[in-house]
């Protein structure tokens, strides 16, 4: 399939710059796979589409304040650092701006949000083919332990902030209420719509909730730049499935109960593990670079809750595959639903509205 086939026009004013005042006040577009029809609801109406015995699988990864700022120790030039993945304590892969000035051996003095220099440095020790820099931190026992003090929320580039107060609010709102395992540099955004009260209501209706972990990297959201979809190669991301989640999923499948993946990240974990274990979920840790695009079959999930995704992104391709499993026409189904969402003035991307595919 051609990558250009997954393009669409989106008015810039529909790119959500801020979350709704309350998490579950966002809108919900429901796509029925058997008829291709859509319903327009509010997010709290999710309860109307779930039934006792259903199992929701959510990603509990916690976003770290991964954006740092610093100065070249030799020249005073400014750098912006975005931590991507921890290799070991104080040893990280990162994106640096401007990258051309971050040669091996460059030492960067890290500044806190008030631009006060403290005794903390990052030294570039390696580069890779993608242009990322490997950094060795010094001046702290563990950079991960001081990120709350020094770091900023790693908001996507399409969300613009010029106010420190708004950035402070993002530390709460660009994080799910059930976030636990630290490691993501981007939020699993489908989970942002849930409140603790709504989670309690879901459980009261005898709907199960289980958690898996996938630490979200920037590669998940990167646009596909190859001419054909099949040529694209995904970045690896770390995941973990616990014993309780594996057992609950396998029992639900055996009993014929529905499993709804909350977010494309949860779905990618389920599919990665199921494809390695003859359709069953197994507890364990690993790394995945699974790329799901039409046509694709799905071993675990019967439903998917997700946000509206960027043109030409792997996430748009994934939801297109899920809309019509085993077929290629899901692209047309999803783009038609997106066109309806645009007409109805839904809000798109990370802080935007939600979509339920059943």
Q: How many domain modules?
A: 2
Number of helices: 7
CATH topology of the largest domain: QueA-like
Q: Shape from CA axes? A: globular
Biggest sheet features = 9 strands, mixed
Helix content: 10-25%
Could you tell me how far the N terminus lies from the C terminus, measured between alpha carbons in angstroms? 24 Å
Question: What would you say this structure looks like, in words?
Answer:
This protein has 358 residues and is α/β, with parallel strands linked by helices. Helices cover 20% and strands 27% of the residues. Helix 6 (314-323) packs across helix 7 (330-343). The chain is built from 7 helices and 17 strands.
Concise structural overview:
With 358 residues, the protein is α/β, with parallel strands linked by helices.
Question: What's the layout of helices and strands?
Answer:
Blueprint: E1 27-31, E2 38-42, E3 55-59, E4 61-63, E5 67-72, E6 78-88, E7 91-97, E8 107-111, E9 117-127, E10 133-138, H1 147-150, H2 164-173, E11 181-184, H3 196-204, E12 208-214, E13 237-241, H4 243-255, E14 259-262, H5 264-276, E15 284-288, E16 303-307, H6 314-323, H7 330-343, E17 354-357
Parallel strand pairs: 1-17, 3-12, 3-14, 4-11, 14-16
Antiparallel strand pairs: 1-2, 5-6, 5-8, 6-7, 7-10, 8-9, 9-10, 12-13, 13-15, 16-17
Helix pairs in contact: 6-7
